[in-house]
Write a structure and sequence with these properties.
Elements: E1 5-10, H1 14-25, E2 30-34, H2 40-45, H3 47-66, H4 80-104, E3 108-111, E4 114-116, E5 121-124, E6 127-136, E7 140-142, H5 156-159, E8 168-172, H6 176-187, E9 191-196, H7 207-219, E10 223-226, E11 232-236, E12 239-243, E13 249-252, E14 255-257, E15 261-263, E16 296-298, H8 309-324, E17 338-340, E18 346-350, H9 353-358, E19 363-370, H10 373-377, E20 384-391, E21 397-403, H11 407-419, H12 424-428, E22 449-451
Parallel strand pairs: 1-2, 1-6, 2-3, 6-16, 8-9, 8-14, 9-10
Antiparallel strand pairs: 4-5, 5-6, 7-15, 11-12, 12-13, 17-18, 18-21, 19-20, 19-22, 20-21
Helix pairs in contact: 1-8, 3-6
């Protein structure tokens, strides 16, 4: 059978674009279909603009801290409308770059919403495309029905388009999106309250990081409500009424719904090719990213496994290499570094304590807790905390965790060492770079404690 394309990619986010360009580089005829803006969540309404807003908040901290270093600085004032205008310009610039990359790579961009129409067939409006292979890379969107009434609140999409910040805000959720925006908003002058079900935020991260970020959020003036997810939310005029049980109701002028994300599969017509999504709407895949339908693959958030941009990119390239590059590649998800861009930020790679002991390791825990030179000089209260988890029998480093300035940059480098199978002895014989915070990772000598394995538990990797 003759097909219009060798590969049709559904979704022009980071994963879909990477897969399409790699496939075209291998000589495949590729079309990519996008119903919104090219660049996807990360570039347009996620990682990039979020970090740009984090930088804005960080500058406020830096200007205030400058006084302790001898600078005369007026009280900083932030104007959200100015930031939003600059953000719009930057995301438009990045979208233009993505479009040019697709064009230069020989990938045909088809704009519109795609749906499957049986094996090898994709419909975009009235247009019918045929492809030898189809790649589903449609990503995810904020959940808007997790709590009755929460659909009235804003999500991260709307937050990043604000031109005026509210005086007070309720943030519902305890994951990284909730904490990042709570931290940023508070630094920009918003009185923030965070509501979540668990006793600590950031489920899945190392316990010490969870406790540390809770303390840092409170030090920044954020009010935490652990174990207090609203049972319902009502809109009353310009206010949001959060019901917390026992007739307790709190009122806020603005609300951020950060209760999770859901795969974008509802409009894909998966049934036409026999794919059955799970309860969350995710597309199940095997180790080669193939779905249950022959010739159809899925990557990134739409599989709802490890929802991070670098994972989607790596998976997309692996699919392209497998299909058109004559390679046999899989993506190892056991050592995925992750960061939470709060202020201060935190980052992890490898197993946390619970996951390490559950996996059967006897774990030596090395820790360091200190104020950096920068903070000590101005009598600041922010602390930096670091942790290495080491297999006490083999000496292999199982996990590295940090909260503090530059944590994501430092842990990204440590991820290389862990991927290479570094031991604690390798860390010990590495010379320190002084004065830095990162040197503490090679100066930890005696374990704070040793944990015995409890393999009956379920291993919990940091994702």
């Amino acid at each position: 059978m003759t097909y219009d394309y060798d590969l049709i990619t559904l979704g022009a986010g980071s994963g879909g674009v990477s897969a399409s360009r790699r496939a075209a580089l291998h000589g495949a005829r590729v079309a990519i279909v996008e119903g919104s803006r090219v660049g996807g969540t990360c570039v347009i309404r996620g990682c990039v603009p979020k970090k740009l807003l984090m930088y804005a908040a960080q500058y406020g901290d830096a200007m205030r801290e400058a006084r302790g270093y001898g600078w005369t600085v007026a009280e900083p004032q932030f104007t959200m409308a100015d930031w939003a205008a600059s953000k719009a310009t930057e995301t438009a610039r990045l979208e233009g770059i993505y479009r040019k990359m697709l064009d230069a790579g020989g990938v045909t961009l088809i704009e519109g919403w795609a749906r499957l129409d049986g094996p090898h067939r994709v419909c975009v409006g009235q247009q019918v495309l045929t492809g030898r292979h189809v790649l589903i890379a449609t990503g995810s969107s904020p959940v808007r029905d997790s709590i009755p009434g929460i659909e009235h609140g804003a999500t991260s999409d709307e937050l990043l388009d604000l031109s005026v910040l509210p005086p007070r805000a309720a943030v519902v959720g305890g994951g990284y999106i909730a904490l990042e925006f709570a931290s940023i908003l508070a630094r920009l002058g918003v009185a923030v309250s965070v509501f979540y079900r668990d006793r600590l935020p950031l489920r899945g991260f190392d316990e010490s990081l969870r406790s540390a970020i809770a303390a840092e959020l409170q030090a920044a003036g954020i009010t935490l409500y652990p174990g207090s997810a609203p049972t319902r939310i009502a809109k009353a005029g310009d206010s949001f009424l959060l019901s917390l049980g026992e007739e307790r109701v709190l009122e806020f002028p603005w609300l951020l719904n950060a209760t999770g994300r859901r795969p974008n599969t509802a409009r894909l017509n998966l049934a036409s090719v026999g794919i059955v999504a799970d309860a969350q709407g995710a597309v199940p895949v095997d180790k080669t990213l193939q779905t249950s339908a022959p010739g159809i693959y899925a990557i990134g958030d739409v599989t709802h496994r490890v929802n991070l941009t670098p994972v989607a990119i790596a998976e997309g390239r692996a699919v392209a290499d497998n299909l058109f590059g004559g390679q046999a590649r899989t993506v190892d998800l056991s050592l995925v570094p992750s960061a939470v861009f709060t202020l201060p930020p935190l980052a992890s790679v490898g197993l946390n304590e619970q996951g390490a002991v559950a996996a059967g390791h006897r774990v030596a825990v090395f820790e360091s807790d200190f104020r950096t030179m920068r903070q000590a000089f101005i009598n600041g209260v922010e602390r930096t905390r670091m942790k290495l988890l080491v297999d006490a029998d083999s000496d292999r480093v199982l996990g590295a965790h940090m909260i503090g300035t530059d944590a994501p940059e430092i842990v990204q480098s440590l991820a290389i060492a862990l991927s290479a199978g570094a031991t604690k002895a390798d860390f010990d014989r590495t010379l320190a770079m002084h004065p830095t915070s990162a040197e503490e990772f090679v100066l930890m000598r005696a374990p704070a404690r040793v944990l015995e394995p409890t393999p009956a538990l379920v291993a919990v990797p940091v994702l």
